[in-house]
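Sequence only, no structure available. Ideas?
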Amino acid sequence: MSKVIVTDHGFPNLDPERQVLAPAGIDLEEIRPICKTEDDVIRTCRGAKVLLVQWAKVGARALDALPEVRCIVRYGVGVDNFDLQAAKTRGVIACNVPDYCVEEVSNHALALILSLARRLPQDHTQLRQGGWGIGSFGPIPAFTDLTLGVVSLGRIARRVVEKAKVFGFRPIAFDPLLPEAVFAQCGAERVDLDTLLARADVLSLHCPLTPETRHLIRAQTLARMKKGAILVNTSRGPVVAEADLVEALRAGHLSGAGLDVFEVEPLPTDSPLRSLPNVVLSSHAAAVSERAMVMLQTKAAQAALDFLQGRRPRSALT
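Reply:
I predicted one. Tokens follow.
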């Protein structure tokens, strides 16, 4: 019998996966306690042909130690916890769920953008402390006077652009990998990174975590942003150098930041981000909705089923 092992997950149960796999006679095993490291994966996942993975690392060491594993599927869009090159050279199919949480994350990003542009965090903080009035954190711009800049123009970013245009934001975007037609289709002006930083009143990050994007937003790039600009990150925490961001916020160079992801998660209790009045924080929750979770589990299991039945999964990356 073919075996699929779930290395780690945060779902209430694995019923959606079983509904996909059980009719085909495929055994599903859940590792408990969950795998947190590559060593955990190596120690607990022998006998599996497919691994379903949420956060655990699967790299060359795991693939060498588990030669029977021929397919790995990430519960999510990003695959920075997979070594794709190691998988490719070993003939292992690596998959993700590319259309997961598009509406959820784009809505979450837009909620952060709107609340920060309207200065809601600052007003909320001062009201709880007994204050009143907007004089200390104005002026408040009209959305129609704001340029929204997005870094990377994938599925989620395109939905952010489409939704933001309804409110009157002027969209510009940087993505060196996409053809001009993608920009034209969603109505975003294509610009280079320097132009994006210089023109954006709101900068929304949607890029994957790669060696090139790690600390893309740091002291040097923050300095090139407009004074009073807003930064929103719903992509990956290490895209932003948090210490540099804190300094830019404290100095008043940025008027606010909305962060769903962080360099270290959970966010440390002593992080200065927790005490800044012009910051909105959420617990890496942008992707979450009940509908999205079931879809994610179902599509990840379907990729495993396709592989085990001899079909190349639609979301195969290697």
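Residues 255 and 267 are 21 Å apart (CA to CA).
Hope that gets you unstuck.
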